[in-house]
Amino acid sequence: MREPVRRRRWIFLLGVADLVLLCLFFGRCDSDGSVTACVEACGPKADVVAETTMQMDEAPECKRIALTFDDGPNHIYTEPLLDGLKERGVKATFFLIGNEVEKHPEIARRIAEEGHVIGNHSFYHVDLSSLSAEEAIFQVSRTNEVIYEVTGQYPQYLRPPFGRSHPAITCEQPMIEVLWTIDSRDWALDDVGTVVMNVIPEAEDNAIILMHDASSTSVAAAFSIVDNLKQKGYDFVTLDEILSP
Ligand SMILES: [Zn+2]
């Protein structure tokens, strides 16, 4: 009479082991890396084996995507954006203008302290390709210095304004130039829904989304994009995670 009871226990334990493995698998998708949350979501139900088999078939694919924000720090919009990203457990990359960092160092410092990556977006937001080599290098090097003075870190990435760089920068500045793969066009639109729909259908693994922390439309659209793509299994990461091999 004991044998069936023992067998049932083994089946239950195997079911629990499957559940833990499944939750570890799903846990990789969570931006907070929380396996506990996944265990709670899966729930220690009775028909564990059957449920785990079904959920394995429906498992969301782990995909990474990067939000990037240009033109900050903005004294009106950057901090509400940081608040919402923190609530959602999302890290992003901010390409800052050196001149604006000088005006609002406390916001730039907060960006760094909250785990976001900071990149260089020139000192006066100028078309670098229109400048002399000396002027273009100044735009980049001065911004690097200002960001270092405020955050203690030199930026690794450069996004030239308007996507136009200068050949002298490649020679003189050991930086990685990064553009984008999806343009939200938030800089040209004041309709949140349109900005969101410029991004969602284009989303794919390792995509880089261009946005600006320069309007309430952009901030609201960013939150909507995060909420939507998280439901589709995307993990929001900083540029270094997208670009590192
Ligand atoms: Zn810009």
Radius of gyration: 23 Å
Q: How much is the average pLDDT?
A: 82
Domains (count): 2
First-residue to last-residue Cα separation: 57 Å
**CATH homolog superfamily of the largest domain:** Glycoside hydrolase/deacetylase
What is the makeup of the main sheet? Answer: 6 strands, parallel
How would you describe what is shown here?
The chain has eleven helices and eight strands. Residues 1-56 have low confidence and may be disordered. Strands 1, 2, 3, 6, 7 and 8 form a six-stranded parallel β-sheet that branches. It has a two-stranded parallel ribbon with strand order 4-5. By secondary structure, it is α/β, with parallel strands linked by helices. It folds into two domains: 2-57; 63-243, Alpha-Beta Barrel (TIM Barrel). α1 crosses α2, α1 (2-27) packs parallel to α3 and α4 runs parallel beside α10. The chain starts with a helix and ends with a helix. α8 links the parallel β4 and β5 (176-177). The protein is 50% helix and 13% strand. It is globular and about 45 Å long. Bound molecules: zinc ion (ZN).
Short overview:
With about 240 residues, the protein is of the alpha/beta class.
Secondary-structure blueprint of this entry?
Layout lengths: L1 H26 L7 H8 L5 H10 L5 E10 L5 H10 L5 E4 L1 H6 L1 H9 L3 E4 L12 H19 L5 E2 L8 H6 L3 E2 L4 E2 L8 H8 L7 E6 L3 H16 L2 E3 L2 H5 L2
Parallel strand pairs: 1-2, 1-7, 1-8, 2-3, 4-5, 6-7
Helix pairs in contact: 1-2, 1-3, 4-10, 9-10
Bound molecules: zinc ion (ZN).
